[in-house]
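Weekly structure sync, notes
Attendees: PL (lead), two postdocs, one rotation student
Agenda item 3: pending single-chain targets
PL asked that the sequence for the first pending target be pasted directly into the notes so everyone works from the same version. It is reproduced below exactly as submitted, 407 residues in total.
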Amino acid sequence: MSLSFLLDIPEDISLSALKLIKLKKSIIKRLTLSGEATIAELCKETDFSVPTVTKIISELIEEDIVFETGKIGTAGGRRPSQYGINPNACYYLGVEVKRNSINIGIQDFNNNFVKLSENITYTLENTRESLASLCSIINRFVADSEVPREKIIGACINLSGRINSRKGFSYSYFFFEDKPLSEIIESQINIKTFLENDTRAMTYGEYNCGAVQNEKDVLFVNIGMGVGIGIICNGKLYYGKSGYSGEFGHSPVFENEIICHCGKKGCLETEISGIALERKFKKSLQEGSISILSGKKAVDDITLDDILSAVTENEDTLAIEIIDEIGSKMGRYLSMLINIFNPELVILGGALAETDMYLRLPVRTSIHKYSLSLVSLDMDLKISALGSKAGIIGACYILRDKLFHSA
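Predicted structure, written out during the meeting:
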């Protein structure tokens, strides 16, 4: 049996039934996050009677969500049973939608991948055909996974741009009608669907099992084709009033005539992003600069992936110089956020972070130069630990939190 009913509790449910569902949630949450427990321990922690907790445990065992893990030793008398979560009771589906590819993963109830596919070919366009292709790829992945669709508790789809995750709307892609995109996708894949901003999902992945250790105030910088930031305040994702926090890349800080894809000029990501790296690199080649990529393909055909590979595999001097310039500018503008938020940790993620020290070192130098020393010296700077998997891992943890919400 799937736990999806816990995500969609009917409004007309009776108070007594609601209490039992909340107790189920509490028990599932306790066993998932803290491990095995006895009936007596669950009674003490939930404030419910032994008969009630025993009844709920019996139901969860019958539903194949909980199982008895064995008996524990006691000084004397009858040994009590311990209960744990069945990792195959349900699954989470995380989907990371990029401009030219998709990453998809299914995790079990213990947040371990049972199937993962990265860089599935896909072109993100604001068309109905592109949306249909996305749903088709998801359906094919689920079918190939051999995980029963009814046991997938939910899907979290990560998209770039302005996402209202609470209402399920995307205002950057696939906004064709006054209906939540989450509902449209859900009707096509037959799985409860939620939307999330890609950077925010990556942030949450790093927070739960990535670069974050015990820090509670964290900034995550996603430097891919564009630039966005994710914010963790006191251990919680920060969304802002309408859910659009983190649009750092669209800060109008440069006096240039470069038009950003948002339609405005001078946005941060016109000079600090994968788009900027690609543009600057091609321009340098056209002006006579030499690179490991020179002559290998037409300048116009060189992609961001080509440039990043030239750095990580061949230490291409031209690409490193441009990344150094981008990193220096990024550090300067990050210093403003660091002065404002005073974070414990800043994480650099996204495609450009794959170059590791070639990005991290100029960013760190610039932060020390432009931020308040008392603030920057009290902060750590790291590269993403999860890399390309951060988004789908974060999506699965977001689904887990939705299941446990109000438990």
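Discussion points:
- The longest helix spans residues 317-341.
- Residues 167 and 381 are 34 Å apart (CA to CA).
Action: rotation student to compare against the earlier draft before next sync.
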